[in-house]
Design goal:
By secondary structure, the chain is of the alpha/beta class. It is 33% helix and 20% strand. Strand 9 and strand 10 form a beta hairpin. Belongs to the metallo-beta-lactamase superfamily. Class-B beta-lactamase family.
Length: 340
């Protein structure tokens, strides 16, 4: 197999369209193309071999996850109740909030991810309260934009992982050897990729973003770059990113360039004494200006500054939203109601 890229993003064989895509050899990718609000539309994976199954991540709410499970059944004949194992690649809502629909299965995560999820519980109720009690004005409008409809975050709580691992876990799905490999802290405190050597496929989860701005929640960026280095060493033809189109190894370069740019530019401004907000506005995003949700530069500068200072305490979500909302308006990625 010798895939070719479409432009700088994507794999020419699979269009970036909603739904389940057959990658061959019992491997599938469930894609959710980016659209407003540009956060929460993640990709998932499914592996089927000799009647054995693995689901890689659920989605941001149960409605979206149910739609994915219905399509898996329609196209593979495997009903949700027959899925044996689920992997949560990391803690984020768009990879875990549908867990209750597969709670009969063994739900696997790294020990760190499982602890993160338990620490956040009740995650849905807390997020719903945050949205319902949001401040007035642009900040509140932005919170509602990113967490409100089309997402439905109420009336459920995601099931927690039932088994954990650290570092690496090797298992078999039918006759296929499958490897779970942990990285981090990077995107989050723990990020897992899934390698299927016999199929030359890797599900990279949120280690790879394409066309959608990465969010460095944990960092340091150097750890994320090490994960990309590892992906480069794999003998694979197909990479399924956490956000963006199916790609090949050529698709690793844009994420790398973005992260290297952020760390370099943030360090220059940190040395000049600029605030996080000042630095985020001052950085020229260049080729990444057209990526979705460019305002995440503020999250990423904030994380860089924290590591430059040696500060382990992450900035609170309300404070980040207070800073990022006006930047999103300035960058044209968010238009408050009544301002169109």
């Amino acid at each position: 197999m010798s895939p070719s890229s479409t432009g700088s993003l994507g794999h020419g064989k699979w269009p970036y369209t909603q739904g389940l895509h057959d990658l061959g050899g019992g491997c599938f990718a469930y894609m959710q193309p980016d659209r407003p609000p540009y956060s929460g539309w993640s990709n998932s994976g499914f592996i089927l071999d000799d009647g054995d199954t693995l689901l890689i991540d659920t989605l941001r709410d149960e409605r979206l996850t149910a739609a994915m499970l219905r399509e898996i059944e329609q196209k593979t004949g495997v009903a949700a109740r027959d899925i044996r194992r689920v992997l949560n690649t990391h803690r984020d809502a768009d990879h875990t909030f549908g867990n209750r629909l597969v709670e009969h299965a063994e739900i696997i995560a790294t020990e760190t991810t499982a602890n993160n999820m338990r620490e956040r519980a009740p995650a849905v109720a807390r997020m719903r309260d945050y949205v319902n009690n949001r401040p007035a004005g642009i900040v509140g409008d932005y919170i509602h934009y990113t967490w409100g409809p089309p997402f439905h975050i109420e009336g459920f709580e995601p099931a927690m992982p039932t088994s954990t691992f650290s570092g690496r876990k090797d298992l078999r799905v039918g006759s296929l050897d499958v490897q779970f490999i942990e990285f981090g802290p990077a995107h989050t405190p723990s990020d897992t990729i899934v390698h299927v050597p016999a199929r030359r496929i890797v599900y990279a989860a949120d280690i790879v973003f394409l066309g959608n701005t990465p969010a460095v929640w944990a960092g340091p960026i150097s750890n994320w770059l090490k994960a990309l280095d590892y992906l480069e060493t794999l003998d694979v033809d197909i990479i399924v990113p956490g956000h963006g189109p199916i790609t090949d190894k050529a698709g690793l370069a844009p994420t790398r360039r973005y992260l290297e740019m952020v760390e370099h530019e943030a360090r220059l401004r940190f040395k000049k004494g600029m605030s996080v907000a000042e630095a985020a506005r001052d950085i020229d995003l260049g080729e990444f200006r057209t990526w979705k949700a460019p305002e995440r530069i503020l999250i990423n500068v904030d994380t860089c500054y924290r590591h430059f200072r040696g500060d382990k305490q992450a900035t609170s979500r309300p404070e980040l939203d207070r800073l990022i909302a006006p930047l999103a308006v300035e960058m044209g990625s968010f238009t408050p109601p009544g301002h169109a």
